[in-house]
Amino acid sequence: MRTRRLLIASLTASALACSLALPAHAADTVIKVGTLKLIHGITPYFYDKFTPAGYKIEVVPFETPTDAKNAVVTKSVDFGMHGLAAGILGAAAGEPVVVLAPMSNGGMAIVVGAKSGIADFKGLKGKRVGLLPGSTQEAVFLERMKAEGMTIKDVKSVRVSFSEMAGALERGDIDAYVGAEPGPSISVTRGVGKVLEHPYSTPVGSVNMVTTTHADTVKGKPELVKVFLDIHRKASEYAMANRKELLAMANAKLGLPAEVADLAADNVKLVWKVDEDWLQRCKNYGSLMLERKQIRRLPDYGSFFATHLGPK
Questions:
Q1: How many angstroms separate the CA atoms of 109 and 81, rounded?
Q2: What is the pLDDT of residues 41-50, one digit of tens each?
Q3: Is 27 exposed, middle or buried (0-12, 13-18, 19+ CB in 10 A)?
């Protein structure tokens, strides 16, 4: 009889433990975050460290800014990390993409072949330049060309994705490219390319990637947005303060050798805080795109920026 009582007690305890554990796991809210396969898109891989109980992060990597933005618009992800240009292109076309906060600045470089003989910006005339249409880099490059008295017709523009640019330069398919890290650092460390300039002298400055969501999420799930933006703040600050872990994460998630990651990290700033300077530079960006006829009208900034839900 005593053995039977012990067995019943044991089974009851096990059943109770399961009943307590399973509902908590099942109730976790999964937050799907899309980001780019770039070192300045790496912050989401640190989110797990700062995700409160009841939530779970799922990171979805994308090849291009447009892919990441489209995932936001179609609600394939809850939040997206991509270039500002992709967001402005979408919003100007009436898509329900909303900017919540900065994500990263920098990460851009104009790279030329190490033996190309190109010594300055005007040396790009007549050269094959790798460029990704619809990217932040494209808008900045066009503005730099304007400052140099040039137009896109002065170069042979070649469509190349960011991840292919370093390889295309090494094969001799292009003479230069307007790239995103880690491409420039890969070219430099291999001795294949050299940085002609970091194109941060335009009215846009070094503004690059932004944190976005669908307009419905801002209206219907403001508490989720607040939770997410607090995670984003903590992860951004942690990654910037712990360089060794940043480099290790770049190796683990992007496969970057230590030398490449170390050089690329010097050209990247992971950010989260909204201020007037950042907002103005974002609007400058829109004006440049309108002037260059990349968009037909400016986004409605009153709805495009929903920065009121983030930490201060």
A1: 19
A2: 999 999 999 9
A3: exposed
CA 57 to chain centre: 16
Q: Is the confidence at residue 174, as pLDDT, over 60?
A: yes
The residue-averaged pLDDT of 162-175 equals 96
Residues contacting residue 158 through CB under 8 Å, at least 6 positions apart: 128, 129, 130, 131, 168, 173, 174
Domains along the sequence of the chain with CATH = 29-107+206-309 (3.40.190.10), 108-197 (3.40.190.10)
Q: Tell whether the model's pLDDT for residue 66 goes beyond 50.
A: yes
DSSP state of 297: S
Please, which residues bridge with residue 270 across strands? 104
Q: Pairing between strand 108-113 and 176-180? A: antiparallel
Q: Is the pLDDT of residue 28 over 70?
A: yes
Q: What is the DSSP string of 121-141?
A: GGGGTT-EEEE-TTSHHHHHH
Tell which residue, 118, 113, 235, 264, has the closest CA to residue 175. 113
Peptide bond into 182 cis (omega under 30): yes
Amino acid at 275: D
